[in-house]
Specification:
The complex is a heterotrimer of chains A (535), B (431) and C (429). Chain B contains 12 helices and 17 strands. By secondary structure, chain B is an alpha/beta fold. In chain B, the strands form 5 sheets. In chain B, strands 1, 2, 11, 12, 13, 14 and 17 form a 7-stranded mixed sheet that branches. In chain B, helix 6 links the parallel strand 7 and strand 8. The radius of gyration of chain B is 22 Å and the shape is globular. Chain C folds into 3 domains: 95 residues, Fumarate Reductase Iron-sulfur Protein, Chain B, domain 2, CATH 1.10.1060; 140 residues, Glutathione S-transferase Yfyf (Class Pi), Chain A, domain 2 (Up-down Bundle); 114 residues, Rossmann fold. Chain C contains 23 helices and 8 strands. In chain C, helix 12 packs across helix 23. The chains are: A alpha+beta (535), B alpha/beta (431), C alpha/beta (429). Chains in contact: A-B, A-C, B-C. The interface between A and B is large, with 64 and 72 residues.
Chain lengths: 535, 431, 429
């Protein structure tokens, strides 16, 4: 049963919120995390997977660079299961400013980031796909991190200390007692039911939505929204992270994470925290930039595109004029609203990076603990998460487990090697809560491979029906909702082989299964033969 | 290109889908020497296996088609012509009967079948493998028994039953043990089908089913009832369970499609046609608006093959007959024939925001070659590009193979028309 | 697109990028549907490929049951080199876990052929003893039912050397009249008559035959995952042949599978992508492909004696991999009276060395069943086929006599060689 009174209510199921919950748990605080969707659905889940060494910030933002290298080292120690130790390269090409590498090396040295210069031949021996036009290349301790695994890891660890979580609940109101926030009203986004949680303090880690939450307390927090698009290529074109060695610009990272290679990113200022649009120029831009470092990559198969919104914040005190996008520092700010606005019981954390999520959590929880009178120090940096493996994640783990009989049962998602017992177990973990196929995707990676659910969504929908006893209508809707969601991330990339893939997927949905006939909105009188285009 | 001596075949068919295979059959039947060249197997291995001609027709399918073709002269059906439409269906039924995978139609003459899908939706093709025709729901009032196998990932009969119930059809689901050894990860439809070929393994399924038959009017299996011995396997089930047994199309790969492809290939080989599957035709060798041969991309060096007539049935965007790139360019890779697209700049008009939009996506409806009534690809001015190259099947523009319920009908009709024109021309030239 | 870009996309491992999971390859795989031990070409190929780290120890073992026949690559409409991906993964498995004595033994057929020649009668007798076969199955896991060749007792190369010594030939006026013959190990030690017939046919066409030094094509080592050995063989052959290729002299061979290795596998499987390998590949032809090419160019005399026979023909999977169609059928069609038809079968089951392995013999026999059925239904006593191991397998499955198409061509040209009795004879005019 969800507790109605807790010590701290954490708002936001991204990396910072999850790390904060874990930090609170280790300090013996009873905390509840509330998330408006599922975990990892906001900025943290719309992420490229680069665990920064800090090299990217070495020249322009030394503070962030220092934070990154320190936190990179700590996360490798405490959450190795979510990290693949790919290492990273910074590569300058003939097109890049010739004087930048020297500045960069100096910056890295100052920030304490270890670098090792390679010859272009050494780099190409390690990564044969790299361009021959390399002018300078350095090795840095970048790694790739799976933000789903990271966040699920923090949450699971926090639960072992007794902390609780509540997903698909939105905070609709903060409850005041004078100048103090004492709790929040939550609404179940799926049923509309409301509940009230009392808390001694609220930790606002809502990412792009922090100003919405602060607004509920009548506090204005100015956040800028910086939208960035990423593309996952179907294959690992490189097995080491590749950064362009030049001042930060669009499309200068290639991140091998899981079975794919993520290309990123763009930077577009927007007015909305949930503006996930991807414009055609962004796709072209990202592919063209990647092409300069890995020639041929733009002819490979782009699997999926997504956009994330970076919440950028600059304290009013240190305000530069007209800074936007990449020019805004990537450090973070902890806003103690008691000190800043005279409102007790609410602490906001904003800005920052996934790489520094633990540090953000630590400094925010320090302020929260001060308010609620807890003196225990932060201990999250010390050791690996309870119960977790001390080995790095390896790409071949799933294949190894499958081949060695450790994951028995029929293979439901062939691409990502997810079995029926795993799906049943994941469904069971939700208890009597509703489960969407998309939740199972985040739990298990079903539908995240090349076919994007073409084969497994029917199977998973039917299993969900069997386990939960759903009606035909509910099942058809769950099925259709999932394949539509998958489609959104593929639509910007439908040409060549990914277009062929979606033809096959559509063929399965429409012809083999007749899903389009059963989704309830079929118009039998529509003239499907009519000439002309739809909107 | 050096001029070669005439050592080619009468016809080269490019593509091994339904259009390519049936074109080769027609050509062989007229006595031509035929070489079929394809990069790989065609779409029939992934489609459900039935023949959609005009799925939306409520009564007389051919009448509906005729009416439609009369109103839309640019539609492939109109181009292929009336007689072709009827003729190709009859020929298809005849050849499938001859090779031992007979296709059948609804008992109500000229009407579409009503077949359940794995999900319990009802699809309405005109022809289907006989094994599916026995599952026609037209006029069925009794209960349908839907059978799948415990631990088999590709058919969940309870879901189908619940969807059928919504449509007023009573269905009951039953799970029995799969024939043969259980398999750790994957049990492919084709592998199951092979097990059904074995009378002893089949018997174990039939014995398990007996107590579940009860009042069932028909018994539906996933389409895995036998591969080589399919007709015998299904007849055995029907006889022992004393109910019409039928098959339901599975997720790819399609066993009915595999049966059809295998049998057609065997037939063609026995008629001494060449069937070369595995390497793409990389380009056409054209002299004075005539194609004299095609180069096949092969190991070491390309290999040329010569012929008098060429049937291009390489498929649409799915099978690579038409290629596309990020910039929105659409092209035909062998002859660089002019391709019609959905219009607009880049890829903006290709896809609708809603995946399951009922009219389907513009890119599939509009992308393809424009042809004349002789199936000759046309240039922008409407003139034929090459004298002896004819296009058939998904390669043509003007229909959406995923939503219009006519994909196979168009493949059959245009393939027949292409062969008829090609070989008539050949006769004119020789005599 | 730059050359570098094109090159990368052409790499075998990257063709997995094109896989749509449609499972056409699984439907066509002759092995997956008859044994639960092999989960299928897509599963162990492009699907597993996404989860393999280059150079890392192999995590999978089920790939061992892939026979390497390559039907998967042929049926894929999207250009995935499935078999090649699988063979590379098999090599990684061998690199991780080592090669078994049996597979090592099978990979070095070239050695056993040579070493066994002086003892041919003894070996031929010994290997047909039930006890010896039983022992071989128990001790080294070589199936007692697998077809074994007979040692000829002399080598083709030995014969050729003597021939050249005894009948000195005038050097041709130009390289255009030269041709290199690649005989392969089997012709050298087991079936020298095929080499002798091939030489006779080439000389009949007025060509000056050269037979440079050569070694095993490397295919047996490659299909057993021993890439180190396979590359060693490949490099030697390239070195032996490249000068001829440079001079534009065609290299022809009567073993369609050896020619597949030289034309394709050296680059696409073994990853030898130097210009020499490419050059040799460009100039290499299967024997019947070469005749078909001459015919297309109007250079093949067609004054054939009639052969009044209807014969089934099996196109080996390795031959299908060439992408050259069925040149044997195209050429044999020119012989009056001869009606050859192609058996509808993907693979005879032997797949090089696969069908010799005790644990895989039953699979190999089931795979080859369609051939046996069709040959039986046609009551054929002679089957035509271009590769040696397939011929042995077909003989063991059907009891039919199996011949290389060159035997028919030579017969139709009226050519004979010593120590050879043609199983099919032409009507002499």
């Amino acid at each position: 049963m969800t507790p109605q009174t807790v010590d701290v209510l954490v708002i936001g199921g991204g990396a910072t919120g999850a790390a904060a919950l874990y930090d609170l748990a280790r300090r013996g605080v009873r905390a509840l995390l509330v998330e408006q969707n599922d975990f990892t659905t906001g900025t943290s889940g719309r992420y490229h997977g680069l665990l920064h060494s800090g090299g990217r910030y070495a020249v322009r933002d030394p503070e962030t660079a220092q934070e990154c290298i320190a936190e990179n080292t700590i996360l490798r120690r405490i959450t190795p299961f979510a990290i693949e130790d790919t290492g990273g390269l910074f590569v300058a090409t003939l097109d890049d400013p010739a004087d930048f590498p020297a500045q960069w090396v100096t910056g890295c040295a100052a920030a304490g980031i270890p670098t090792e210069q390679l010859t272009p031949e050494q780099a190409r021996a390690q990564e044969p796909a790299l361009t021959p036009n390399i002018t300078a290349v350095y090795r840095v301790p970048d790694a790739s991190v799976d933000s789903f695994d990271l966040i699920h890891g923090f949450i699971a660890a926090a639960r072992t200390y007794g902390c609780k979580t509540l997903i698909y609940h939105r905070v609709t109101q903060l409850i005041h007692e004078g100048d103090t926030i004492v709790g929040a009203r939550l609404e179940d986004t799926r049923t509309g039911a409301t509940r009230i949680i009392h808390a001694a303090c609220i930790l606002n880690a809502a990412g792009p939505w922090v100003s919405v939450i602060a607004g509920l307390a009548g506090i204005a927090v100015e956040v800028k929204f910086d939208r960035g698009a990423m593309i996952a290529m179907n294959m690992r074109w490189v097995n080491t992270i590749v950064n362009r060695l030049r001042p930060a610009a669009d499309g200068d990272i290639l991140v091998p994470v899981g079975a794919v290679c993520v290309l990123g990113t763009t930077s577009v200022m927007t007015d909305h925290p949930d503006d996930y649009r991807i414009e055609p120029w962004e796709v072209s831009k990202i592919l063209n930039e990647a092409e300069a470092v890995v020639p041929g990559i733009r002819y490979g198969r782009a699997l999926r595109a997504w956009a994330g919104v970076r919440p950028l914040y600059e304290s009013p005190a240190a305000h530069h004029n007209d800074t936007a996008g990449r020019a805004v520092m990537r450090t973070f700010s902890v806003l103690d609203h008691a000190a800043l606005h005279g409102v007790r019981g609410l602490v906001t954390v904003v800005g920052g990076k996934l790489t520094t999520c633990r540090l953000m959590a630590e400094q925010t929880v320090d302020v929260v603990c001060q308010q609620i009178g807890v003196t225990a120090p932060c201990t999250t940096a010390r050791e690996v998460l309870p119960g977790a493996t001390t080995r790095y994640h390896r790409l071949d783990q799933r294949l190894h487990r499958l081949e060695h009989g450790e994951t028995p049962g029929e293979l439901i998602c062939e691409c990502e090697m997810v079995t029926r017992p795993q799906i049943e177990q994941a469904i069971a973990a939700y208890g009597d809560q509703p489960v969407a196929l998309d939740d199972l995707r985040r739990d298990l990676r079903i539908g995240m491979g090349p076919c994007q659910g073409g084969f497994c969504s029917y199977r998973a929908a039917a299993i969900l029906q069997e386990v939960k006893g759903h009606s035909a209508l509910e099942t058809n809707r769950a099925f259709a909702a999932f394949v539509r969601e998958r489609y959104q991330g593929v639509r910007p990339l439908l040409w060549g082989h990914q277009l062929r893939q979606f033809y096959l997927d559509e063929l399965i949905y429409r012809r083999t299964l007749g899903l389009d006939w059963l989704t309830g909105d079929y118009d039998p009188h529509e003239n499907v033969y009519a000439e002309g285009d739809h909107d | 290109m050096t001029k070669t001596t005439q050592t080619g075949s009468d016809v080269i068919v490019i593509g091994a889908g339904l259009a390519g295979l049936t074109a080769a059959v027609h050509a062989v039947q007229t006595g031509a020497t035929v070489r079929l060249i394809a990069q790989g197997w065609g779409q029939q291995i992934v489609t459900p296996g039935w023949i959609s001609v005009c799925d939306r027709a409520k009564d007389d399918v051919i009448a509906e088609l005729r009416g439609y073709a009369a109103l839309h002269p640019a539609h492939p059906y109109a181009l292929a012509g009336d007689e072709g439409m009827i003729d190709c269906l009859e020929r298809f039924r005849a050849i499938t009967k001859a090779i031992g995978v007979p296709y059948g139609a609804c008992v109500k003459a000229g009407h579409n079948l009503r077949l359940t899908t794995l999900l319990g939706a009802i699809q309405t093709p005109l022809l289907a493998p006989a094994s599916m025709v026995s599952g026609d729901l037209t006029g069925v009032t009794g209960e349908i028994l839907l059978v799948s196998f415990t631990g088999w990932r590709d058919f969940y009969p309870a879901l189908a039953a619940s969807n059928l119930a919504k449509q007023g059809i009573t269905a009951r689901a039953v799970l029995v043990d799969a024939p043969g050894a259980p398999q750790a990860w994957d049990l492919w439809p084709v592998e199951l089908a092979r097990r059904f070929d074995d009378p002893a393994l089949r018997q174990r399924v039939i014995d398990q089913l007996r107590p579940h038959v009860q009042n069932a009017a028909k018994i539906g299996f996933p389409a895995v009832v036998g591969l080589e011995q399919h007709v015998e396997a299904l007849a055995d089930c029907t006889q022992q369970l004393e109910r019409p047994c039928f098959e339901i199309a599975t997720l790819p790969p399609s066993v009915p499609g595999t049966r059809l492809s295998n049998r057609l290939r065997r037939w063609l080989l026995r008629q001494r046609a060449r069937v070369q599957i595995g390497h793409p035709v990389v380009h056409g060798i054209v002299e004075n608006r005539r194609c004299v041969g095609v180069d096949v991309g092969a190991l070491g060096h390309t290999n040329p093959f010569y012929a008098d007539q060429f049937i291009l049935a390489t498929g649409g965007l799915y099978n690579g007959g038409i290629q596309s790139d990020e910039s929105g360019r659409l092209w035909e890779p062998i002859f660089d024939l002019p391709v019609k697209g959905p219009g607009g700049t880049g890829r903006e008009k290709w896809y609708h925001a809603n995946l399951l939009v009922h009219r389907g996506h513009a890119v599939h409806r509009h992308t393809g070659l424009r042809v004349n009534t002789r199936m000759q690809p046309l240039d922008a001015d409407g003139a034929p590009v090459l004298d002896n190259v004819y296009a058939a099947g998904h390669l043509l523009t003007g229909f959406n193979p995923l939503t219009d319920g006519c994909a196979e009908g168009i493949a059959l009709a245009t393939a027949l028309k292409a062969v008829q024109v090609a070989l008539a021309l050949e006769a004119q030239k020789s005599y | 697109m730059t050359d570098n870009a094109q090159h990368l996309i052409d790499l075998t491992a990257f063709t997995a990028d094109h896989c749509l999971k449609c499972n056409i390859c699984t439907a066509a795989c002759p092995v997956a549907s008859i044994t639960p031990l092999f989960p299928g070409p897509k599963t162990v190929g492009p699907q597993a490929q996404r989860m393999r780290l280059p150079g890392a120890p192999s995590p999978d073992h089920s790939i061992d049951y892939c026979s390497g026949c390559g039907i998967c690559t042929l049926v894929c409409p999207h250009g995935v080199r499935v078999m090649e991906i699988n063979t590379q993964a098999k090599a990684q498995m061998t690199a991780t876990h080592g090669i078994s004595l049996r597979n090592w033994f099978l990979s070095r057929n070239e050695r056993w052929g040579r070493l066994g020649t002086p003892f041919a009668p003894l070996i031929n007798f010994g290997l047909r003893l039930w006890l010896a076969r039983w022992f071989a199955e128990k001790a080294v896991k070589i199936s007692a039912r697998a077809p074994l060749p007979r040692w000829a007792g002399y080598t083709f190369r030995g014969w050729w050397k003597k021939q050249v010594r005894q009948h000195p030939r005038p050097a041709p006026a130009s390289d255009a009249q030269r041709v290199v013959y690649f005989h392969g190990c089997s012709t050298n030690t087991y079936e020298p008559h095929i080499g002798k017939l091939a030489v006779a046919v080439l000389e009949h066409l007025g060509l000056y035959v050269e037979i440079p030094p050569q070694t095993c094509c490397g295919l047996p080592a490659q299909s057993n995952g021993d890439f180190k050995a396979a590359r060693r063989y490949a490099r030697k052959n390239i070195a032996f042949l490249v000068d001829y290729a440079r001079r534009g002299i065609p290299i022809v061979g009567t073993s369609a599978s050896c020619m597949t290795a030289i034309k394709g596998d050296y680059q696409h499987v073994l990853g030898l992508d130097d210009p020499d390998a490419q050059l040799v590949a460009e100039h290499t032809y299967d024997f019947m492909e070469f005749l078909a090419k001459l015919h297309r160019e109007g250079k093949l005399p067609t004054d054939f004696h009639p052969i009044e026979r209807e014969l089934p023909y099996h196109a080996p999977c390795q031959l299908k991999a060439h992408g050259m169609g069925r040149p044997a059928l195209d050429v044999l069609d020119l012989i009056p009276g001869l009606r050859c038809w192609e058996i509808d079968a993907d693979c005879c089951g032997i797949a090089g060395t696969y069908g010799f392995k005790a644990e895989k013999r039953a699979i190999a026999e089931t795979v080859g069943k369609p051939i046996a059925e069709q040959v039986e239904a046609a009551s054929a006593e002679v089957v035509v086929c271009d590769t040696e191991t397939c011929r042995w397998q077909i003989t063991s499955l059907t009891n039919a006599t199996t011949i290389h198409p060159v035997e028919l061509v030579a017969q139709a040209y009226g050519l004979t060689v010593d120590r050879y009795t043609p199983p099919v004879t032409a009507r002499q005019m």
